[in-house]
Description:
heterodimer; A: mainly alpha; Helix Hairpins; Four Helix Bundle (Hemerythrin (Met), subunit A); 2 domains; 7 helices; B: alpha+beta; Cytochrome C Oxidase, Chain F; three-stranded mixed beta sheet; two-stranded antiparallel sheet; 4 helices; disordered N terminus; metal ion binding (chain B); Cyt_c_oxidase_su5b_sf (chain B); metal-binding (chain B)
Amino acid sequence: MTSSHGHHAFHLVDMSPWPLTGSISAMMLTTGLVKWFHQFNPDLLILGVTATTLTMIQWWRDITREGTYQGLHTKAVTIGLRWGMILFITSEVLFFFSFFWAFFHSSLAPNVEVGSCWPPAGIQTFNPFQIPLLNTAILLASGATVTWAHHAIMESNHSQAMQSLGITVFLGMYFTALQALEYYEAPFTIADSVYGSTFFVATGFHGLHVIIGSTFLMVCLYRLYKCHFSATHHFGFEAAAWYWHFVDVVWLFLYISIYWWGG
Amino acid sequence: MEYISENRTNIPSLRNPQIPSRPAERKVHLSQLFAMASLIARSLVLNSRRGVQLTSVRFANKMMADPMEHATGLEKQELLSKAAGNENPFDMRVYKRVSGDQTNPTSVPSFYERRLVGCICEEDATSINWMWLEKGESKRCECGYWFQLADAKPMV
């Protein structure tokens, strides 16, 4: 069979507009944030969010087309994608490391301004054995169900894979709902001393990552329903599962250090 | 084809209205125990004869495609090649140099008119010596070995 492919194992991608639209929309996002903060006008930000979302949808749709429908994801290409996901998750670990650094910097030697104690004087912290403990159980359970889904896929068990991945997505959304409720009911705000800053920045970025991870898993659920995965080739799902486990581990660190030790 | 129904008529208290439905009032008679045991035994015997894949309707969900059937394009060619015994369909191996002097240069296969070649001059070399190899002319690496470009035939 002759092809213009050149008989190598790699994927030299076709020309695509999404890197350009992605960089333009990232610029609109960041500049829009500044405009919202300083001039109280969110229009540019909304435009940036829309453009970013559209870029992501179409870029990843194209990757699905290249891999699943065109069969361009050989073993070598999949290995490259694995390394890419590992490196990305590593960068995210470093991102969260900085927020934990900030938290420990402020909490291990509390300033006189907060009362030389931690939690600072006047801060009413969350009881770690109420909703936060339930959230911990939810994420741990979702780690188990996503592993169940993986094994089901590897054993070609479609209905169990759908069920377990569906439960995983549900648990992710349940966590988000509970955490949103906690935010609403919190007796302190982000403006309440360095406690509020470290708490809401760390848990807030974590919550954003839960939403990202849940979305990734939902896309995988849809692709599983449409039979994009086979028992031996389902890297999109594996990447989502890795990301989900990362989100779970970050929560465990958050729970132990901020909610429990810091409360 | 007979199969064991797992619907509710197997629950004794529903099949027989004389059996009280509150657990505390239920007394399990020996005959009922035997009935239950024989149901299980029948299920096992029938299922082992039909094979695990068909155990009951509930388990007939190995519905995902066979990976070979599911694959397409270049990935499928790679899988077919591996299934046929060729573990290296894209020729990714490191080549071993031949004696390599000007009269007998090492042949490097290529589908194009030129190819990048990297010579690992000695086993413990800490860098690779890269050079472009053009069709027609042999080239010498600094370590003394000669290379020439040859036409490659598709392996996949």
